[in-house]
Design goal:
By secondary structure, the protein is mainly α. It has 2 domains: 24-74, Arc Repressor Mutant, subunit A (Orthogonal Bundle); 76-223, Tetracycline Repressor, domain 2. It is built from 11 helices and no strands.
């Protein structure tokens, strides 16, 4: 009789325990939230081509249930878009309203290099996602994010009251700077083939960045 009563009480206690909603993963209760998944995706994008940054790989890196990606973002595409937007907010600057356009241009070139170092494979990610997506929202978001540096270069032209800079196309300048800076990161295996073994790549990167600054500023300054 006593044994039966104990089983009845145990069953009633279990029956009264809170039930999770249908489809809602429980990993969030262990502290794995939205930001943890974004951080895991960012880490993986530093190490792997975007195609290999799958939902399961991100969840594994974060120590989470893969269902959390669907719960927080809807799908992998939206999660990677969130990653791109977060990095964009950290690196992009609004068009300048005051200052020396030559100095601002130099600073923005260095800012672009910092971005490509901190967001390896980001350009490849955007190209791959745009190539595969049919979502207008994704296309509009990527377009808006990439318009920021173009608008910044246009703002420098408007700020150049003394006419120190030669005429240039803001879009072409953006493509040149992002391409020059990005290839030094993504093309590293090829670059290393051209260098003596044991070359200090960090030091070389600083020298390359200084070279690009001189190259662009000398080319854009009026003579």
């Amino acid at each position: 009789m006593r044994v039966r009563l104990r089983y009845q009480r145990a069953f009633m206690a279990r029956d009264k325990s809170p039930k999770r909603g249908k489809g809602r993963p429980t990993a969030s209760s262990s502290g794995v939230g939205r930001e943890a998944l974004i951080n895991a995706a960012r880490e993986l994008l530093q190490e792997l081509p975007p195609a290999q940054v799958t939902g399961s790989a991100v969840a594994r890196r974060a120590g989470a249930d893969p269902a959390l990606i669907r719960y927080y973002f809807g799908n992998r595409e939206q999660m990677l878009l969130e990653v791109a937007q977060q990095i964009g907010r950290e690196s992009n600057l609004p068009p300048p309203s005051a200052g020396d356009p030559i100095k601002l241009l130099a600073d923005f070139i260095h800012s672009t290099f910092r971005f490509t170092r901190s967001a390896r494979n980001m350009q490849r990610l955007m190209i791959d996602e745009l190539d595969s997506t049919s979502s207008p929202e994704v296309r509009d978001s990527v377009r808006a994010w990439n318009r920021v540096p173009v608008d910044y270069y246009a703002g420098l032209k408007a700020l150049d009251a003394k006419g120190e800079l030669t005429d240039y196309d803001p879009l072409f300048l953006h493509l040149a700077v992002i391409g020059i800076s990005d290839f030094f990161i993504t093309g590293r295996p090829l670059i290393e083939l051209l260098l003596p073994e044991g070359t200090d790549m960090e030091k070389l990167g600083q020298q390359y960045e200084a070279f690009v600054e001189r190259l662009l500023l000398d080319g854009l300054k009026k003579r």
